[in-house]
Amino acid sequence: MKVRVQPEGNYYDKYHSTNPIVKWMMNKFFCDFKELLQQTEGIKAILEAGCGEGEISSLLWEYFGKSCKIKAFDISEKIVQKAKNENMQIEFSVGNIYDLKARGGYELVVCSEVLEHLEFPEKALENLINATKTYLIVSVPREPIWRILNILRGKYWGDFGNTPGHIQHWGSRSFICFLKKGGMKIVKVKRPLPWTMVLLKKE
Description:
Elements: H1 20-37, E1 45-49, H2 55-64, E2 69-74, H3 77-86, E3 91-94, E4 106-112, H4 121-131, E5 132-141, H5 145-152, H6 172-180, E6 185-190, E7 195-201
Parallel strand pairs: 1-2, 1-4, 2-3, 4-5
Antiparallel strand pairs: 5-7, 6-7
């Protein structure tokens, strides 16, 4: 399988932005993410696929504490090293979502803002589903709102607001339809502007 090389990390550091609008959006993102976590139970082991700098992994650690083990991986060695330096309590490693071989080893698998970068999201989703014993949380940018907001802030006009590296584009409805093909039950859908965030559960 020939895989396109993707950019390392985030083009725009939304997690540490001082822009009040971006801070409001990220606060809503994290609030909705925690609301999905409240729907889970029996979590002892967590995997984050495509962890970037480790912001979501850190949130998971803060939420579950030492009661569960958290592993996370990203394709970029540089980004993984940065995550390790800032989150030493979490087990970070370099890995590729296409090569994920875990089989039901985690009660919760998280994949946030990764699938839109992939040429073969169906294969990635299959691996994520195989890796979880119970729950899966995935989020992607909600289109076309994502690109419209980029244009409004004066970014990526030449690409009609498309963030570099985004090659898949889903609205909420189309993303939910995509997830349903994996066979897991849709437990809850959240739509913090401008994302679609979904909690799924194996039946």
